[in-house]
């Protein structure tokens, strides 16, 4: 299990805090990009995100919660992130967006809201590098984990195994030391407030320890 650390709830001095977070045992720094249109909330501009993450050493994982998808892809591709993830619900031509990101030499992720079922995205699975299951409604941090997300994660794992797909499964929203144990078939967990509202290093250690204990158990937990 890899951890993508979100800094949505970090306050000033944000550059210093995000840099400190990047130097700890996380695998990605997760950028929550919101435009105030696709979701109610609005986060930093590209220029502000670039400044905040200028000393980040870990790969960047960009999550676009925006309506004008290609405009934001053009901007954030300049950061050379490992993943740019767009929302299935925001794209009128999903295949075109997937090709657009790949043509930039970047890995492409697609996210689905809690109300979108895996069955709706079957046709795209073979073309994706990552699928992000939103386990809360996108737009705000600190929400409670939606239990049906576990079913989606497990379904995506089964489809990947059956069809030899290559995507990673990521889950975002309400992840803490308890809910991470429900996400055994995910490859990446996005974690925000659980880390940023306590000692970062201790929180990350707890997550990794709980995960290792759970992984070594008899079987994954299904709901």
Task: Summarize it.
With 223 residues, the protein is an alpha/beta fold. The chain has 7 helices and 8 strands. Strand 4, helix 4 and strand 5 form a beta-alpha-beta unit.
How much helicity do the residues have?
25-40%
What's the shape? globular
Secondary-structure element sequence?
EHEHEHEHEEHEEHH
Average pLDDT for all residues: 93
Number of strands: 8
* Strand percentage: 15-25%
Return residue spans where pLDDT drops below 50 for at least 5 consecutive residues.
218-223
Strand order of the largest sheet: 1-2-3-4-5-6-7-8
- The end-to-end span amounts to 19 Å
Number of helices: 7
Rounded to the nearest angstrom, the radius of gyration is: 16 Å
Sheet with the most strands? Answer: 8 strands, parallel, barrel
Class from secondary-structure proportions:
alpha/beta
